Amino acid sequence: MNLDRLLFPIPPATPAAGNCQLHAGTAVLDALWLEGRKDYPVLLYSHGNYETLQNIQPLCQEFRLQGYGVFAYDYAGYGASTGKASEKQAYLDIEAAYDYLLREKGVSPKNIIPVGFSVGTGPSCYLASKYDIKALVLCAPFASAIRVALPFSLPGDKFKNVNRLASKEIPVLIFHGKKDEIIPYRNSKLLYNKAIGPKRLVLLDDASHGDLLDCLGGDFWSEIKDFLAEIDQ
Hints:
The protein has helices spanning about 5, 55-65, 85-105, 120-130, 160-165, 185-195, 210-215, 220-230, and strands spanning about 20-25, 25-35, 40-45, 70-75, 110-115, 135-140, 170-175, 200-205. With about 230 residues, the chain is of the alpha/beta class. The chain has one domain (about 5-230): Alpha/Beta hydrolase fold, catalytic domain (Rossmann fold, 3-Layer(aba) Sandwich), CATH 3.40.50.1820. It has an eight-stranded mixed sheet with strand order 1-2-4-3-5-6-7-8, sandwiched between helices. α3 crosses α4. It is globular.
């Protein structure tokens, strides 16, 4: 079973949708930087599989309208990005994005919030476990790749998010729909239970995988604001 292929089904190529490029190993990634208010954190957004920067432009603009700076990117092999997607490459991708924020935009690590949706929670958890960040926001996350289908791990598992949250104090805010047909919400419950930093779990009774953010509506922003206020005390 090729987990990388299952985790990263490649959508049709698109023209470049970003305004900058990242070098992640041998891959060149299409990325989008939108500057926010000076007193707001920067959201480093990792999208779901089969999405591209082109698809998430409206969401990125919404982040910006809320005051946040936003930095989003296409994985290697997605959209206009070169290279081939994999777990290992996804870690290089998000490290390149983090490095760009620090070196090119002068953003403090303590002002960066990785936000991951679905498969994007894998690189987001990795980054949070390895580098300084302000907080972590996970939308429809998985505890690990194999735990999407099974309630336990097996040899060869990928994106062991639950291990990362259990190994470092990371402020984490988790959103999940109880009707998620792709990633069962038991994954979020496990992540929440194992996380050792400040944490909050928001479960939505009627949300599925694809409509999670739509179902959250304005609560998405108020929950983030409240959680950040809580950890800043």
